[in-house]
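Predict the assembly for these three chains.
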Amino acid sequence: MPNLVRSRMLWAAVLLAVAAVTLPWWVSGYILGILTVAYYFSVFSMAWDLLFGFAGEVNFGPTFLIGLGAYTAAILDARWGPPILVCIVAGGLVALVGGLLLAVPALRLRGPYFGLITLVAVLLLQNAIVIFAGITGGEIGMTVPDVMSVSAEQNYWYALAFLVVCAIILFGLSRSAIGLILQASGQDAIGAQALGFNVTKHKLAAFCISAVFSGVAGAMLVFYQGTASVSTVVDLGVGVQIIIAAVLGGRRTILGAVLGAVFLIVAGEFLRPLGQINTFVVAALALAVILFFPDGLLGNLLRVRERE
Amino acid sequence: MVWLQILIDGFAISSLYALGAIGFTLIFGVSGVLNLAHGGVMLVAALMGWMLAGEAGLGTWLGTLLGVLAGLVAAYITYLMVVRPIQRSSAIPREEKEIFVLTGTLLWGIMIQQGMAYIFTDNPVTMRPLFPGVATIAGVRTPLNEVMIAVVCWVVIGLLWFFVNRTRAGKALLAASMNPRGLTLLGFELSRVYLLAWTLYGVLAGVAGVLLASFLGVSSNNTGQLTASAFSIVVLGGLGSVSGSLMAAYVVGYLETITAYLIAPTLRPMPALVLLVLVVYLRPQGFLGRR
Amino acid sequence: MSETSRLSVRGLTKRFGGLVAVKDIGFDIEAGEILGLIGPNGSGKSTVMKLIMGIERPNAGSVKMDGTEMAGWAPHRIARAGVGIVFQHSRPLHRQTVLEHIKLALLPDSLIKLVADPHVNRRAREIAERVELGAVMHRHPATLPFADLRRMEMAKAIARDPKVVLVDEPFAGLTLAESESFAALIRTFRAEGRAVLLVDHNVKSVAALVDRALAMYLGEQIAEGTAEQVMQNETVRRVYLGGKIETRERARSEVVSKPAILEVEDLGVLYGKARALDGTSLHVREGEFVSVVGLNGAGKTTLFNAISGFVPYQGVIRFGGQDLRGMSGAAIARAGVVQCPESRELFSDMTVRENLDLGGYHLAEAARSDQLTWLFELFPILKSRQRQTARTLSGGEQQMLAIARALMMKPRLLILDEPTLGLAPVILEQLSKALESLQRTTPITVLLGEQNVTFALPHADRVYVLEHGRIVWEGDPSSFEREMGRGYLETVPI
């Protein structure tokens, strides 16, 4: 049955998407570039929100999964040069394995312990990349011979298309029967089991989905930028930004993560002239959000509707 | 000869790790907070100590003291402006409070790191040794500073032990880690007990920070690694167990030193991380974990 | 008979570390029958329910439904086999409507089915109508009153037409009228041929509803039969009442004239949406010993927690003329209102001496050692076990330590919550003697909350009876036997 809020939200989303498609005709290449990155970032955040908001697992190191996808694709392309699509798929698969590796302790550990493991995973990956600098380019990073396109408009549309597809899938999932089961599993595992749901199976599925989307998005980002480096795809700070974007937009809304990510990336650009201090400002902003608006943008809007 | 060097160096670095880790585990045991800004607090102490001692010309000893004070201030800010507001916020549901505190301290740690990097750049700095000179232990020449740092660490740990086990205020702290409700029933304001815990933490982390600056040097890039080492050690030893952290600190310290000497200095942080992953998969409560 | 029983439990045992929570429990429930599983706190009744549902795995025993062994199965498998459970506490999803919650219960455990089958919607509506949620099924849980939330939980439990229904504390937090309507709903379950297990604190509240009852105490079965039979059972009466009611005459004249030191007016407490206390008023005079008797779940602990400042409340609480509202729990304790809770809250890894020292923390050195000496006289066993850690003490010794620790604070008002829980009669004797000595030698004021009437009455100057969150009787101990005696445990026919 038509949920009034949902259709309003959907219409707003459709309008935004249409507006976004038309942007390249009246906006500079520079801004398109920022938005392209923001769109990939949005997918990172949506994948995180699915795992947190719906399976109740806090992943402090989304960049572990993203980095796995990104570097797999980059290394494959640099060494053996298969078509970009193959590299991206490979990235997704390796990230999937990474997701499963994370899932195993998650299903046995309490909250903060699991969070720590995700942090450690990122650190391990970082160290591994530095150690095997011969293959990965170490701390400086590596370049890939192929890119998706050299045109800013084309890259923008690729990113937008990717975002829209991912958003449809992830949002659709969140609103589907499976999404409902996932939400119940995350919030009250025992209650969900008592209703006949194999919570373990569903959480594992959530990890896999989150991992695949993160990995694929990471790989695509590499073929947009033409480089893969620790500071862009495996950094702890980047991971935190992803989380903040999701929280800013509103936990458990999926679409809110898009808003949060775009806002964050754009704000980061505006603050770039400040120099080094811009990360500080973003972190401060994020802290303020946590302290004063933990429900985030969309979250607050939805809460208002609920009370009516 | 190398083994003796490893023994001594490992001892010194382990003692330093122990100090930091004990502070970390104290805060977790008493107030249930995993402070991911730990590296940041140590960094503030280290950099302020270095600046005041060297650039401001206050001399090594005064600089060290003020550095510790700076660490204390950083700890207070962490508690009063990040942790406590989140804990008291009515907008965050109870089940998610832990996660939000974790994220909040992580963010604050990043803020400290970036802020310090902005002010001091991310170049590594070393403080002039507190104890200049060289000591010879069984034929191995070691900087006296290194030996004394280990001694200072143990003195501080000893003082802490004395405080917790022999003074009334210390006992109250211990009780808070066992049963905060019990303390409230006996008329203790928990907010005061927590403040005491964070004060102790600030001093411990502050001392660890300035000593680190004096021994190995620090840069803002180390922040994440410092926090990671501390919680690796604490999880290995068992969250909430002080003796566990002590043991684990030595295990990690020696593993790292051996790796750095015998395999490669760049691989230094690896063994601790790998060990941590193994422990979490096989024995999540750590060596001596209770909680 | 056991082969055809809908639910058949035999030799069910569960240990948590060294503690045996459930020992060798066995019973049958036929289709179309309601069994009441009764027991005070710590009796193991909730654990039995969890064992049947698979939330805990039994160490031994069997749970069979229509002859199929289910012990050791995962909870979701047991649920799919046809067991539904209504938990006492639940956390609804805030963004979903009532209807969506019920639909959730109807969904298959599939990873690939994205959209629910069309009949799910229709069925969910039917169920909503059935539990009288038809009017509110499109609303969100946050907007609903407590009773409707409980109805929603019932709806979820019966959505897939279970053969066995487990209900935990069916009437907790409900008003009398709401309880009636819930009882009617549960009767329809029986009429539909389901086997129903009700878990509750006391027989009285479910007596009218159950066909049979089984009473538990400390993990073991102590009585089985009809509700009447269980209520009359000697062992059950001893466990709940403590045995035959005796009273002692106390010189009360001096006390009656003293001013009230504690005044509670029109106290109301809500846990989320569940009402735990409703319009409660009582007073305690200086030097008095007042007992509040009531079965588990009646609201005694809630009452004490409100007085001690641990839960928010409506109404007025005054101590020594001072309004306690707004004061922190610790401040209230320092003001002289010291509680010794049911859970004791000892520092288990500290020694007896250390626990006591912490109690006397705020006293001057000399005063503390005086107090310690006095307490060691009152509880000699504590003196001999000074250096032992609290964890290693027996239940009775721990209780004495908890009381002694509270007394170290030199309270003006001592609140004792269920001190006799789980203690052997011999220990109760010692405790009783200590309380008597306390009364004789000090001007202390005591507020005692107890289920065990035999323990609570002899010391008391006045007695209140708390039932389902309300004070239903007030008077002196000698009148209690006459007026309340039978009605305390049994439903007295009007």
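The radius of gyration of chain B is 19 Å. The longest helix of chain B spans residues 2-31.
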